[in-house]
Each structure stands twice: as structure tokens, then as C-alpha cells.
Amino acid sequence: MDSPSDGSSDSPVAVSAASPAADAQASSRSVGEVLWDYLLLAKPEISSVVTLSAFAGFLVGSPAGLAGGTLLWAMLGTALCAGGVGMLNHVLERRYDAQMKRTATRPLPDGRVNPKTARRVGILMVITAVGLLCPLVNVLTAVIAALTAVLYLFVYTPLKRVTKWNTLIGTVPGALPALGGYTAATGHLGAGGWAVFGILACWQMPHFLSLAWMYRKDYDRGDYAMLPVVEPNGNSTAAQMIGFASLLVPVSVLPVVSGTAGWLYGVGVVPLGLWFLWTTLVFHGERTGQKARRVLKASVLYIPALVAFLLLDWFL
Asked: Model's pTM, two decimal places?
């Protein structure tokens, strides 16, 4: 499928020629409007979940007490990296976003922000994040942040238009920040870290597949090889949602098994996981946008609730 071109490369590190139309539009807008658009480019809804998952990893890695200074720098670095990656992802996908109804009014396809400037800001955010994490937290956490950016931008993003398995592959960079939160607290890889990595990996599949089902027509227009586009009957989509939601229940208990979380967390997270699983079973029986949205809402509530149980267990 052909896509509109602005004469710039799709590489997140390439510098493109500025669009005169974009420059003219940007110059006529207030500082507040421009800053708001850059906030949107940083994908705050995703960056906040990424940062929250890193906080969960930090909690799992801190059963004896929280190191406040390390926690602050770890969360700041994670948020900056997530925001920078989100911005660069917008740059890479701006041509495809222009073809989809729900994304056509985003700052880049709508011409409100110059792609060259957005690219530079995104790169600066990622570099700043790694630069903060390396000396102020530890080298391992900085490496995980850099690896997350590379895998998301250079592996997951291009594969979204190549293979229906892109969502599964995307669970790796999606779950690495949780592992990074654990290494920020401990300085090493461990059972607790891999447990939170597994939780986030399992959680992502129902979350993103429900979103892909809701917007499958838009993804088709944008030339994305999402599973609901490639297999429109929904059998594989529903089966994978149920499978990973089922797996999430025992995986979520692994922090208890590894001794990095207590029984109070376990008592709370099991019914939480079963409720999430139930929404996927309902979707399997009635594959509508409304039932998919119910799965999405449950997934959005799952991570904050899991963190709340970790905090409750930690304080009590």
C-alpha cells in the first residue's frame, strides 16, 4: 500500500528536511499548544504504564526497604526512555498513522510538529535516560533501557507490517522495563526480576490484541499485519488472549514463590488475574468491539491493581 511521503527517511536517527508547511503552522501556535503536542508524542498513556511496571519491579527487588534516591532516578530514567521511544515510534509510523482514522489527527500526520524536531527530541530523551541510569542507578539497568529502545524501534516497530507475530515479539521490549526496575533495586538479574518480566509479557498479549481487534479495520488501512487483520475470524485472537490470560494467573504468583513478595500480594493478585481471564472468555463467546473493550479496560486496571497489592504487601 502506498503511503504519503514528506521526503524524509523512516530511520529514527536520520535527519529529514523540514517541511515549510509544518514550520509555518508551528510558528503560529502558542507555546502551550506545542508543548501539549510533544507530550502527546511521548505517549503518556503508555509511558505511565511502562514506568509503573518498572516501579513494580523495583518493589519486588526491595523486600527489605526502598532506596528513595535510586527509586527516583530509576523512575525518571524509565519515563524519559519510554517517552523518547514513543516519540521516535511516532516519527517512524507517521505515514501509516496518516492512513488511519484514529491516528490521522496526531501531531505528526496532521502537520502540527516537524518530524525532524520530534526525531531530535526523541533521541535526546533516550540518550538522557541512559545517561542518567548508568551513573546514578547502575550499568545493568542502563543497558536494559538501551536494549528496550533498540528492540522496540528496530525490531518490533518494523515487524508490525511484516508478521502477525509482531505482538508476541513486542512483549520482550514491553516487559524489559519491569526487569529494569528490579535490576535498579538489586543491581543484578534474579528470580524476582524474571517473574515481573513474565507477568508483563503475559499481560501484554490480551491488552494489545483487544486493542488490535477494536481497530482492526484501521490497522488494515494502515497496512499493519496485526493478527485480527490477517485472521479476521478472530479464532486465533481469542485463543491467544485466553491462553496468555490463563498463563498470567500462575506467573503472577511467582514473586511469592521466589520469596520476593508475601502472601497478601498473592491473595490479591490471583482473583485479579481470574477476573482478567474471565473478560477474555466473554470475548471468545461474543467477538464484538464492546467485549474487546471490556478486556482492554480490565488490562488497564490490572497493572495499577498489581502495584497496589505489592505496596500493601510491602507496607504490611
From this structure: 0.88
